[in-house]
Amino acid sequence: xxxxxxxxxxxxxxxxxxxxxxxxxxxxxxxxxxxxxxxxxxxxxxxxxxxxxxxxxxxxxxxxxxxxxxxxxxxxxxxxxxxxxxxxxxxxxxxxxxxxxxxxxxxxxxxxxx
Length: 114
Description:
With 114 residues, the chain is mostly helical. It contains six helices and no strands.
């Protein structure tokens, strides 16, 4: 349940981060330039918008990173079967079966040894 909640929050934050980044323009355009005018320039309207977009980008990116790291702890754990012990048991069982199915060998007589 918590893992699903983390996934939903990650998707929402990622979508918001994409929107904030798309609004910005590295050359000074974008949303910040549309609010710029002669009177608002002196009041700092463009600068405030740019600062808001920068701070929101950093905040959303840190929140996204934290959510991703926290979701690792909430992820459902899969039961891992110890396959090495199963393989060893299978090999031992085959060795026992092979020894039981081998024909009994006759001990060599003293005459044939000479």
